[in-house]
Amino acid sequence: MAERVMEEQIQDCGYRTDSDVCELYLGRKGLRDVPDLSRFRMLKYLWLNHNKISRIHFLSMNYRLSELYLDHNELSDITGSLSHLSSLHTLMLNDNRLTGLKKTVREMRRMANLRVLNLFHNPLAQDSGYRVYVLHHLPSLELLDREPVSQKEREEAFKLFNPERTAVIQSLGFGRRTDSVIGARPAIRSPASCRLLQSSGKCDRTRNSDRPDTAPFEDRVLLRGYQRSIMHYSLVDWSKMARSQQRRLAQQPCHLPPLVTVEFR
Fold first, then answer.
1. Which domain holds residue 239?
2. What is the C-alpha separation between 213 and 186, in angstroms, rounded?
3. 37, 181, 199, 230: least buried by Cβ within 10 Å?
4. What is the CATH classification number for the domain harbouring 20?
5. Are 53 and 89 within one domain?
6. pLDDT digits (tens, 9 = 90+) for 26-42
7. pTM for this structure?
């Protein structure tokens, strides 16, 4: 039945050879299976919506596909069937039976050109943090589930899945670098680490050079967390600086104003 429907569609469109076929509309045909479409190498647009398709095994050589409509079918898993379609721009998978958010998104990680994606009305769309997870792992998306992707959503996804990099970016914004992670719990210090901090100058920063190199690695990392870079800002009061004419007319030599240095830790 599927082959007959496909041949009728080819005749209706007036295609003469397989290489002329750039689009196929096979939607709403009650199809349960689709024959291999490898012979249509130039196929770019494919409609298979509103059928009863349960698995995808017919797109192994259709690398030029840019729009694929598989919504309103009976798909429960797409693993190993779509990852090679790197030219896809639009992918409709809503109203299916897809479960497993991670493996479904992993299948689309190589689609660098993917801009429009529909996954609503699937069991995976009920997972907690579904939208932010998809946006983080598919950064090229501009429209997800018929809603535009905002810059605020991208930033929230970045902060949620990259806490270390977020902490570094925020620390650089205040003119210093820190190795701590925002929201991280303080580490439980052992007696040995406490003695190390006391002997290494936590209160007296001039004794940093005396810290023992034989201390455990964890204690040395903890010690470094208490150290911060020192920033110096030097200022000159230009109102007290003599002008060139004043220097020429002055009876006594003009002294340079003092240099004021401010230290930030």
1. 231-264
2. 23
3. 230
4. 3.80.10.10
5. yes
6. 999 999 999 999 999 99
7. 0.65
204 and 110 both lie in a single domain = no
101 by Cβ neighbours in 10 Å (0-12 / 13-18 / 19+) ranks as buried
| Torsion angle, alpha carbons of 136, 139, 141, 146, to 10 | 20
- Convert the pLDDT of each residue in 236-255 to its tens digit: 777 777 777 666 666 666 66
Please tell me whether residue 63 adopts helix, strand or coil conformation.
coil
Residues 6 and 104 placed together within one structural domain of the fold? yes
Size (the chain), residues? 265
The per-residue DSSP string of 231-262 comes to EEEEEE-GGGSPPHHHHHH-SSPPPPPPEEEE
Nearest-angstrom CA–CA distance, 34 and 80: 17
Strand partners, 261: 234
3-class DSSP assignment, residue 116: strand
- Which run of H or of E encompasses 172? helix 163-173
Tell me which of 161, 181, 204 is where a domain ends.
Answer: 161
Please report, as a single letter, which amino acid is at residue 22: C
Residue 111: how many CA atoms within 13 Å on its side-chain side?
29
